[in-house]
């Protein structure tokens, strides 16, 4: 694994963590999940089960991108996820 790939994974993991934590915070403040896929996972797998589903799917996507030699995709997903986390944070600050 190259340094570039490792850094993309670190950014990806941190963004995913920020998204999960800010989503949980927003939900505690009465907000609703805006992503229909995650909203379905919340209904189907419960209060915390959706986190496992989200992380499995997103980590699989990151792994596939790195296997294909496309760390730029991991960077892009990390960036978009960080923006979602920022949006969540601003909803309840």
TrEMBL record:
Keywords carried by this UniProt record: Membrane, Transmembrane, Transmembrane helix
Residue intervals passing through the bilayer: 6-27, 48-66, 72-92
Keyword Repeat carried by entry: no
InterPro entries: DUF5658
Domain DUF5658, first and last residues per copy: 10-85
Pfam (any one): DUF5658
Name under which the protein is recorded: DUF5658 domain-containing protein
Organism of this sequence: Palleronia caenipelagi
Taxonomic lineage of the native organism: Bacteria, Pseudomonadati, Pseudomonadota, Alphaproteobacteria, Rhodobacterales
């Amino acid at each position: 694994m190259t340094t570039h790939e490792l850094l993309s994974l670190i950014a990806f993991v941190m963004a995913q963590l920020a998204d999960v934590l800010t989503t949980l915070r927003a939900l505690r403040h009465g907000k609703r999940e805006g992503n229909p896929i995650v909203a379905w996972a919340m209904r189907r797998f419960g209060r915390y089960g959706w986190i496992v589903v989200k992380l499995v799917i997103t980590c699989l996507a990151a792994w596939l991108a790195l296997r294909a030699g496309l760390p730029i995709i991991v960077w892009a997903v990390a960036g978009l996820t960080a923006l979602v986390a920022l949006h969540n944070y601003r909803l309840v600050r």
